Amino acid sequence: MGPPTRRAVVAGVAALAAGAPLAGCARARDGGDVDGSLRFWAMGYEGDYSPILMPAFTRATGVRVEVQSLPWTAAHEKLLTAHAGGALPDVMMLPNGWVGEFAMIGALAPPADPALFASMFPGVADTVAYAGRPHAVPWSVAPQMQFYRRDLLAMADHDEPPGDWDAWRAAGLKLKRRRPDDYYVLLYLNWWDGLFSFAGQAGARLLRDRDTHGNFRSPEFARALEFYKSLFDLGLAPRAMSTQIEDPVAAFARGMFAIYPRGPSLLVDLLDLLNLRGPARRIARDRWSVARLPGPDGPGATTGVSGALAVSAASRRADDAWALVRHLTSVPSELRFQPLIGNLPARADAWPAMRLEPDLLRPFAEQLADPAPSPNIPEWERIRTEVTLSAERVVRGLMTLKEGLADMDRRADAVLARRRALVDAGKIA
Amino acid sequence: MTRQERTAWIFAGPVLAVIALVFVLPTAMALSLSVTDYSIYALADWSNLSFVGLGNFAALFGDPLFWRALGNTVLFAVLGVPMAVGTSLGAALLLNDRAMRWKPVWRVALFAPYVTSVVATAVVWRFLFNERYGLLNRALGAIGLPAVDWLGDPATSVPAILLFVTWKIFGYNMIVFTAALSAVPGDLMEAARLDGAGPWRRFRHVTLPAIGPVLILAAVMSVAGFLQLFAEPYVMTLGGPAQSTTTVLYFMFEEGFKWWNLGLASAVALVLFFLILAVTLVQARIGRRYEWL
User: Fold this and answer.
1) Which of A162, A405, B116, B130 can bridge B134 by disulfide, Cβ–Cβ 3.0-4.6 Å?
2) ipTM of the complex
3) Residue A214 domain boundaries
C-alpha cells in the first residue's frame, strides 16, 4: 500500500464536487434542519436520553425534534463554533455558568413567558441571568454533594462523614491507617468542582473590582486551597486526573475511595437506574449514602452545575422552540426524566411527586436552599480552568501555596485583561 | 502566449486555483487575524475588534505556557523522530532479512496500527497505562520493578505518549523502508561481503547510502508530524499532568476554539508554520550535503 491510486483520487474529487454543493444548500436553507425537524443539542445523560421525551412532544404539536448529544469535554467549543458559523440548534442545553457568556455574544433569545419560571427553587433563576434578565430556563439542579461508602466510614467509626473540615479529614486519616493502599476521597486534579466547592464553603469571593481582577489571594480561598492540598499530601486523595480512572463507579464499588463528591447524576449509577451494571456489580444500597460536603465549620453554600435550556436567537421557529422548552421543563417530563438519569428538577413543584427515597433527597433539598453565588461573566469558565491548573501544580509540589495563589491571580488578571479594558472604556457593565 | 504555454496553464490552472482557495487565502486570513485582538468580545460586537500589530506575538512570547508548550513539542520531536524512524528501520531490516518467514503476515500485523483510529487506540492504551490494573505495570511487576504512574506523573507522561505514537505510526515508514531496501543492489551487497565487510559495515556503506533519500524524507515527514502532535495528548491526558503534554498545537486549539482568542491562536499558527519551515529547510540542507537529495 503506497499513496492512493489515481482512480481513488478521481473518485474522491468527483464525490466532493458532487456532495459539497448539496451539503451547502441543505445548511443554507433553514439553519440546518434538513427534514423540517427542530434541532436540540444537549450534553451528558440529558443528551443521550432526551429522545425518550420527544414522542410526547411530537404527538402534541406535530413537530419532530432531532436530538444531538454532545460530550461535556467538547461542548463549550462546539457551541461557540456553531454560533460563529450560524449553525446553532433551535434549542440547546447550557450549564448555568455558560449562560452569561452566550447571552453576551448575542446567541440566546431571552424567555418572554414568566410562567416558565413559576415555582423554581430560589436563586436558580439568578444563575441564568445576564444584564438583569434570565436568558435560559433552568431545567435541572445539580449541587455538589458527597456520596460515601457507609461500610468504609464505619471502619473509621463514623456513620456518616463529619460536617466540618478538621473532623472530616481526621476520619480520612483513620481510614487511611486501616486501608493504606486505598484512598479517602476522589478529587480529579483537572476538574474544578472539588476546589471550588471548598472555596464556596469557605465563603471566598473569587473576583473583585466588578469582576475585573482575580481575588484568589483572599484568606478564605487560601484556606480552601490549603485544605484541598492537604488531602493529597496526606495521601487521602490520589493525584489523578479524570483521564486516568476509567470507571470511577467501579473503583468506588471496589473501595478505592470512600467518598466520591459528585452531583445527583451519580444516583443513576449507584441506584443502577438504567440497569447497566446488573446486581452483581452494584454497591448494595445499605452500603452507600449521600450527604452535604463538609465546610470549615459545617456544611455551607456550594456551587453546582445546573442544566438550563436556551433558545437560539437565530432560530426561525421561536414558537416551536419555546414550546419544546415548556415541554421539557414541564412536571410530567421532569418526573419521566428523573428516574432515567437521576437529575433533579429545577422546579420545586415536581419534587413531592418524585419516587426517590426521602433519605437520599433530603440532603439535596437542604443544599439547594443554600446556593453559593458565582461570577456570571464570559471568562469564568476559563478562569476556573486556569485556577485548577495552578492548583494542580501546587498539589504536585511544583509551586508553594503562596506562589500558587499569586499565580492564580496572575492568570485570572491575564484572562480578564480584555474585559478590564472594555469595562474601563464603559463598553460593558 | 504560445499554444504550448496555454495548454500548460489549462492543466495547471485548476490546481493553482484550488491551492489559492484552500491554502493561500486561509493563510493570508490567518495572517491578518493574527494582528487583531479577535476574541469572544469581537464575536459579540465587531466594534470591539481592534488592530494590535505585533501585540499578539509579544503576548505569546511573554506567556510561560507557550514556552512550556514549545518545549514539550521540541521534546516530543527530538525524542520521537529517532524513536519512530529507528523502529521503522529496524522492523524493515528484519522484514527484509532472507531468514524471515511469513513476511506478508508480519507486514500486515505491523502496519495494522497505522490504519486504526487514533482515538480508539488511545483509549485502549490508556487502559494499558493504568497505574493499578494496566498491562504495562503488570509486566513491570512480573519482573520485580515498581509500578509507574505512566499518564499521571509529569516525568513519564511524555515517554508514555511517545510509546503510543511510535507504536501507532512506525508501520507506515516501515513499508516505505521495505520498498527502498528491496532496491538495494544485491550484487553490491555480495561484493561487499566478498571483500570481508561485516554486517555493520555493509549496512553503513551499502544499505544506508541506497536508502538515504528515503530516510531523509521519512525524517522530514516525521518532524512535521511530531511538531503537530495533538490528538494523542488530547485523548490520553488532556494536556496534563501539570500541562506536561500540552503541545503547541494543543495550546493553539485551546486558545482558538475553546476560549475563542482567534487573534492569539492565529499568531501561534504562524509561529508553528515558520518553525516547521525552518526545520525542514535545515533537514533538506543536511540531505543535500550528503548528496541524498
Assistant:
1) B130
2) 0.78
3) 145-303+375-424
